[in-house]
Amino acid sequence: MYSPCSTIYTTTLPISYHTNNSSDLFTNHPPKKIQIRRSIVCLSSSIKMSTTAGQVIRCKAAVAWEAGKPLVIEEVEVAPPQKMEVRVKILFTSLCHTDIYFWEAEGQNPVFPRIFGHEAAGIVESVGEGVTEVQVGDHVLPVFTGECKECAHCKSEESNMCDLLRINTDRGVMLSDGKSRFSHNGKPIFHFVGTSTFSEYTVVHIGCLAKINPLAPLDKVCILSCGISTGLGATLNVAKPKKGSSVAVFGLGAVGLAAAEGARIAGASRIIGVDVNPDRFELAKKFGVTEFVNPKDHNKPVQEVIAEMTDGGVDRSVECTGNTEAMISAFECVHDGWGVAVLVGVPHKDAVFKTHPMNILNERTLKGTFFGNYKPRSDLPSVVEKYYMSKELELEKFITHEVKFAEINKAFEYMLKGEGLRCLIRME
Ligand code: NAD
Ligand code: ZN
């Protein structure tokens, strides 16, 4: 079993830090209010971490200096968290395909130099003014889209598209002052989707952090902070298949296979996996996928192949590829009258989705989602409990590779080659 106590104790020191007076040692976390075991955990972390609160931390980060060029491990400065911000010591991170698109910057706007990374887990090092929800030593998952809890979206049961903190891939600075908290030799480095987890320390808005059960192993639940919750929620919260129904999943990477797991949990009887990479099919059997279609094996559109297999179309489909053709197929392969298709893949910035309006008139529904419609602060802690801690969802099978932080470029190679699902990057 993962031990939060020993992990905090051994991992809280940054590479170098400035001295600080000890007066704020307990201001963030009075030990008298907490129970013995937790107090040991938090006391040790407070002692270690309070030395850096309010100070610039120098630590290692993987910097993307230019589009498509290998990341370089550099020593960077991480400024203290400002109002409503939290500085987090990242312990584990992993690579999602969204990082790749913005690093390649072929179909996306280039913003460089930048620190990528948005799927991760860590521990609160210090908090900025106004932050009361988390304390030094808390275990947290940063999320690329936030929840202010005050706007119309946050108050709506139907939306997670927070007005203030929704995903913004072009902004490379913090909201409060329009500045970056990262610098290298005094020059700013841009953030990515408010998380920038390819750094030993990062600064995140409190609305983009989920505080989770300290007993949850961070080297597993880190993948719930993007890909797995996204796929799972796309099926369970958005597509909502009925028991016994048929579901097609386009793209059998980690996000798609999490969508397939969602279909399994919902009791779907047929789960049809669609991918152009045949290596995915053997792997996908472990995730409840019952049938496979490789569009390259057919000389007609894959939506027609699926319609023939299912007597007119599947009840639900979830697209997790980012490819526009696959998005159109995912929509056109659902049954008329009741079929629902959900788009998850991040498209090229100039992409156009084209279908005949009659496909919609025929009572098909097209939806889309970010982060599986989960509200990060309110829902993610219970996703950890309900699916991982209760053993409903085995996160271990998604983690097919593991590398040290210094070898982060290998994680990029695996994903570019379509090898494996998630590569865990250990920061130490
Ligand atoms: P991945 O690269 O591991 O998996 C993508 C899979 O899609 C691969 O197996 C690939 O072979 C397959 N594929 C590509 N083109 C295809 C096509 N035309 N037809 C069928 N299969 C095709 O990526 P991932 O990390 O699982 O992410 C999947 C997608 O989800 C990406 O576009 C990513 O940016 C997006 N994403 C969206 C959200 C969100 O909130 N909406 C969150 C995370 C990831
Ligand atoms: Zn992601």
Automatic annotation (TrEMBL):
Keywords assigned: Cytoplasm, Metal-binding, NAD, Oxidoreductase, Zinc
Annotated localization: Cytoplasm
EC number: 1.1.1.1
Chief place of localization: cytoplasm
Ranges of residues in domain Alcohol dehydrogenase-like C-terminal: 254-385
Keyword Zinc among UniProt keywords: yes
Name the record gives this protein: alcohol dehydrogenase
UniProt xrefs under InterPro entries: ADH-like_C, ADH-like_N, ADH_Zn_CS, GroES-like_sf, NAD(P)-bd_dom_sf
GO molecular function: alcohol dehydrogenase (NAD+) activity; S-(hydroxymethyl)glutathione dehydrogenase [NAD(P)+] activity; zinc ion binding
Domain of life: Eukaryota
GO biological processes: formaldehyde catabolic process
Gene assigned in the entry: GtADH
One cellular component (GO) term of this entry: cytosol
Family: Belongs to the zinc-containing alcohol dehydrogenase family.
Enzyme class: oxidoreductase
Catalytic reaction annotation: a primary alcohol + NAD(+) = an aldehyde + NADH + H(+); a secondary alcohol + NAD(+) = a ketone + NADH + H(+)
All residue ranges annotated as the Alcohol dehydrogenase-like N-terminal domain in the record: 83-212
Co-factor(s): Zn(2+)
